[in-house]
């Protein structure tokens, strides 16, 4: 038995691959293996001999099996190490510069606007792009017969005949977010709501989908003076020009009273537009004090609360800031245009880091 042990342990130790191990297993402990045959001989022994030889043979069989398993694991380990060596990779190597994708100017400007208003304590509110006509019109003091409904060139969602659900529209402005936000959060509040809006209109300066940012600030004593300060602060930061002046012109919106259209100071010289200087004016947004009926519709008591709202076209101020001549190009998905006007994806705009490095 000692001879058998010595022989197989040596052979197992010397095996260099799994196939050889399997041959050894068959040879030693397989059905007709050397050790198995010895076990059959137990029957011919006297009971005394058997009592000694039986357990010893079983122990030998276990020892050989254990040696086979250990060697098999060692061979697998060695094979894995060999493979890892050939597949070695230096993860500290620098990457090749990849300049495939860019951030769309609208996304960039939306981030810039958010960063500036965040600094002034405004958070971002959102609402659905498909909304009921109650949020888009009625709650904003635009009743069914109001001309503003027709003027907005609204896209209505198709309804099967007999469908009694409230009519849904593609929102024509971001103002419905005012209602949704106040309904949920009440007053006081200070939010902006950037997003897509839709009107059935298409020419050089209009696309059926465009972008607005709504502003809303409600508290006990907020006035038009606060609105003017906030907007001038915003435009100076956005255009990165100190002290941009605004001009308020009386206007009319059903959801604000009083209402004003706001222009920013600019000059035209040799066809060159310059923001923040000269005696020209450029219209950039609509605004006013939130109408009491609007507060009421949103569940806010107009005897207690008041504030301002404004709505500004994001596409328009993007064109002004980055010298983009044609609105429609924003939405053509032309790769050459995107590479030219797009922004590096890791330059997140912040006020302290410079908005548009
Ligand atoms: N919703 C208006 C528009 O789309 C803009 C606006 C918003 C005006 C808020 C006043 C107050 O033209």
Tell me what you see in this structure.
The chain is α+β, with helices and mostly antiparallel strands. Strands 1, 4, 5, 6, 7, 8, 9 and 10 form an eight-stranded mixed beta sheet that branches. It has a two-stranded antiparallel ribbon with strand order 2-3. It starts with a helix and ends in a 16-residue tail after the last helix. 40% of the residues lie in helices and 21% in strands. The chain is elongated and about 120 Å long. The model has no long low-confidence stretch (mean pLDDT 92). The chain contains twelve helices and ten strands. The longest helix has 40 residues, at 47-86. A hairpin with a 2-residue loop joins strand 6 and strand 7. The chain has two domains: 2-86; 107-341, BirA Bifunctional Protein, domain 2. The chain binds phenylalanine (PHE). The site of phenylalanine has 10 residues, from strand 9 and strand 10.
